[in-house]
Write a structure and sequence with these properties.
280 residues; alpha/beta; TIM Barrel; eight-stranded parallel sheet; 10 helices; globular
Length: 280
């Protein structure tokens, strides 16, 4: 972690997507992050609430248990797009069905406000296993609708198919494209359908001009912010482990891109996040 935290935000914000349970060897080395410390650091700079995402059965259970001890944390649960093909390869359809059952039971709990992250990831999953991924996405879409919860989408190298599956299955009332990675045209398309778009530290990267162009066209009522920590660390800390306490850097860059002051941007992000996930 950086020795100096960013200047606190003038108005608090919510990290709409983070992974407090994830230890990445390349980013963390041998030191596991302490969720309690991470939450305290975040609160000290104005990131006072977070949405913790569990991406497999074990992570989902941990997330629900952790959030029960932290009133400022709510949860999203799902099988990550790359997790479903992994289970199917190792355990077959029976193993995948058992995982679905566990996720469905967890998702029904009040502390779980979202089904996700689900979606498609064609960067890591190739060939016939993409059909497993697509079926998993369809299952999660229908779970979100059944439970009347937000759907959080992971979309990597798969824009067209994500939208095709989402529209063919019928989108839930609340849809979030987590770590939005499309261009301005896709952002406009999502906006027309009332889908939320969440931006991470990538918005601060030098080569992210197309993403900043997309951010400019997102309506005020559909924009969110996240860390996806411990990944996607904003500049100037890129290459180090991310945390919610670094999100002020992303918020300020978003304000610059959208031509508003920091307080206005933060208030907008706070209100939108509560519109998606409710009040907690």
């Amino acid at each position: 972690m950086p020795e100096v935290t960013p200047e606190p935000l003038l108005v608090p914000v919510i990290d709409s997507h983070c992974h407090l349970d994830v230890r990445d060897r390349e980013l963390h080395g041998t030191t596991s992050p302490d969720p309690n410390q991470m939450l305290m650091l975040a609160a000290s700079v104005g990131v006072t609430k977070v949405v913790q995402i569990g991406c497999d059965v074990e992570s989902a259970r941990w997330s629900v248990e952790m959030a029960a001890r932290h009133p400022d944390v709510i949860v999203g649960v799902a099988l990550h797009p790359n997790e479903a093909p992994r289970i199917f390869t190792d355990q077959g359809q029976v193993g995948l069905d058992n995982a679905y059952l566990a996720i469905a039971e967890l998702a029904a709990q009040d502390i779980v406000r979202a089904v996700g992250e689900t979606g498609l990831d064609y960067y890591r999953t190739k060939g016939d296993l993409r059909s497993v991924q697509q079926e998993s996405f369809r299952w999660h879409i229908n779970l979100a609708k059944e439970l009347s919860k937000a759907l959080v989408i992971h979309d990597r190298d798969s824009h067209e198919d994500v939208i095709a599956v989402l529209e063919s299955e019928g989108a839930p009332a609340k849809v979030v494209f987590h770590c939005f990675s499309g261009d301005a045209k896709m952002a406009s398309y999502c906006a027309e359908r009332g889908w939320f778009m969440s931006f991470a530290g990538v918005i601060t990267f030098k080569n992210a001009d197309s993403l900043r162009a997309a951010l400019k066209v997102v309506p005020d009522d559909l924009v969110l912010v996240e860390t996806d920590s411990p990944y996607l660390t904003p500049m100037p800390y890129r290459g180090k482990a991310n945390g919610s306490y670094l999100m002020p850097l992303t918020v300020r860059r978003m304000a610059e891109v959208r031509g508003v002051d920091e307080a206005t941007m933060a208030k907008c992000l706070w209100d939108n996040t509560r519109r998606v996930f409710g009040v907690w």
